[in-house]
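On to my pick:
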Amino acid sequence: IMCLIGLNVIVMAMSYYEMPLWYRFTLKTINLTLTGIFVLEMLFKWVGLGLRQYFKSGWNIFDCIIVFGSIVSLVLDWSGIDKSTNNFDPTIVRIFRVVRIFRLVRRFRGLNRLMKTLVFSLPALYNVGLLLVLVFFIYAIFGMYLLSAVPYGEFINRHANFKTFPTAMVTLFRMSTGESWNGLMHDSYEVRPGVFNRPAVILFYISFTVISLMLLTNVFVAVVLQNFEREMNREEAELRSEGPPLNSQHLKAFSHAWTDIEDGEYMHVTKVHQFLNTLSPPLGLRGNPLSIKEMIRFLFEIHVPMSGQHVHFVDLCLALTTQIFNQRERAMGGKEVDISAIPEESEVMKMIRAQLWRTFPQLKRDKETNIQQSSVAEFTAAVSVQRWWRLKKEGRDALTLRNMSPRKKAQDSMRRPPIQDTMRIDFDAS
């Protein structure tokens, strides 16, 4: 797909003015073919991921918009609409096909880093931009008051002057880029025909240049550099000696620990405690076993769904994976997310999801039905309460039995059935 995107951009760059009909037809045919391939790619993703999962990714939404825009562009191209006879220029819609090149950003680490830096910088740039607009507004009003009667010269002309507010704003923007601000200043010494005010004009131009060009513009650069450094530190944190939060070796350890306890893809809920205490970190708790109370709290945090009284391999793996990812996000100041909302740019998480869903496609389809399921934590907590109540009841019965007469004990034992211990769980197993 990436090669086809590059080919699509190259084909768009091959058009020129007054092309022969056969050349124009060839380019249109190639564009039509490539757009058809991109449409099929989108449809395959819809079928494979489902619409809900598909539109959870920002990149997928971006692709969808580009595909629909490309379809509209092709329809207008082949419809033969002439811009000379219509107010609408159909070539404007071709911008959707040009924007497709941004899909390459996600494949190149450096470009992806720069793009994320710009996105993270937008809130701060918005505030700095508002301050810059305020400075422009003040200087435009002051310039109209001071320089509206300046006669035209080499630099002060109908395109650059302070006679109207819009033209003054455009002139100030031009000055903020450093273009000919000193020439504008020299032409403005004569504020009115025959009247010169060099000190005021010099103060106006130099103060604006210092504030806009040397201060606020550098603030823009500083904001971008700060966010770029933050993104670099974020990536370096994943490449330190401890490595990324998860890798394929951790998944293999999870699989081996699972097969040591269960042969199939389902594990009885009573064995989850034992499994977690024998599984090595970061997914497991080996070396730091939890008590029943701590285990229940931990299970409520990761929320492992049950199927009957069993837990599926994928459900437990995804729950522990999400827990590791959220711990890392909290440490880096991020927000907790669900496994389905983990960013696509996290390659490790993307690989885990792809491997698990490819191995268990039926479970993925069941998940998309969003059937409410009870969790391991709820079951474990309920069994703990039942166990506590049974032990308390057995202790109370034993005390009552000691206070009974021998004859009463014999009668009570003949009348009462034995206690069934079907809910006993060996929580201390390791």
In short: The beta strands are 190-192, 195-196, 266-268, 310-312. The mean pLDDT is 74.
